[in-house]
Amino acid sequence: MIAVQQVVRAFGLALGGTMHPRMLWLSLRPFFIISVFWGCLIWLTWTPSLAMLSSFLTNSIFTNWIQDGLIWAGFDNARAWIAPFFFVMMIIPLIAISLLVLIAFTTVPAIVNSLCKQSLYSDLQSKRGGSLIGSLFYTFWSAFICLVLVMLTLPVWWIPPLFAILPPLFWGWLTMRLMSYDVLAGHASSEERDILIQQNRWSLLVMGIACGMLGAVPTFFWATSALALVLFPIVSFVALWIYSLIFVFAGLWFSHFLLEALQNLRKDELSKSLVVETRVIDSGER
């Protein structure tokens, strides 16, 4: 029951903090970086990628049934939009994962530093149990696992109800992994980090899945709307900023929850040590 109260309290603090001008700026910075990177990459590869994908979908014995099935179902112009549709479906997870990795690696530390200047966490001692190399390895290894799972299951994403189940699970697991490590890297020791993640693993997973469900909203619109294909550049920029804002909210939510959990852990350890010292002193006097 206490864990639920902490999750709800952290959610309320994160929701209010997301609209702070500094947090809005922190959501725009990675958005600009990823937009420029992927915008240039898509612009350079759009035509050859569509040509290769169209050829693959038409000639491969594993995929040519998709176009035939759509034409049989009455979509006579399927050959015109099937390649752009699949290209968008493949590029969305890559963009979302790269954005989440960038926010976890660069923005979450800024969020934690900003919160630790507030009175709620100003007395929290920094033990720096994480390192830059450790964060890099943890981030890219987690992202690689998530990307492999996404690519293996991508062909069934459009099948109900999997399109509503798989994305939140993947984004939730990855969000939980990245946020938990990077929030605690600067202030918790490695032992404290392991204890906190172990004690709160179900609460963290629920928070991650909740953030994944929020992140699935632009994914669903992006992948299922015909307007998204026609106005892909505009829609992609809007959806990307929504992703960025959701991930910043996730960073705030995990930061409030884990920093409070770290405070409570240290208070409990201090209380236990005081009790042990008191008993030792009492035994010595006797």
Secondary structure topology:
Layout: H1 2-18, H2 21-59, H3 64-72, H4 78-116, H5 132-153, H6 162-184, H7 190-199, H8 201-224, H9 226-230, H10 232-285
Protein name: EI24 domain-containing protein
Main location: membrane
Transmembrane segments: 23-44, 81-112, 132-152, 158-181, 202-223, 229-259
Question: How is this structure best summarized?
Answer:
With 286 residues, this protein is mainly alpha-helical.
Task: Give a description of the structure.
85% of the residues lie in helices and 0% in strands. It has 286 residues and is an all-alpha fold. It has one domain. α8 (201-224) packs antiparallel against α10 (232-285). The longest helix has 54 residues, at 232-285. It is found in: Membrane. Keywords: Membrane, Transmembrane, Transmembrane helix. Its main location: membrane. This is EI24 domain-containing protein.
What is the overall shape? elongated
The run of helices and strands is HHHHHHHHHH
Q: How many angstroms does the end-to-end distance come to?
A: 41 Å
Could you list the spans in which at least 5 consecutive residues all have pLDDT below 50? none
Which class do the helix and strand fractions yield? Answer: mainly alpha
Helical content stands at over 70%
The tally of beta strands, per DSSP, is: 0
What Rg is obtained from the alpha carbons, in whole angstroms?
23 Å
Number of helices: 10
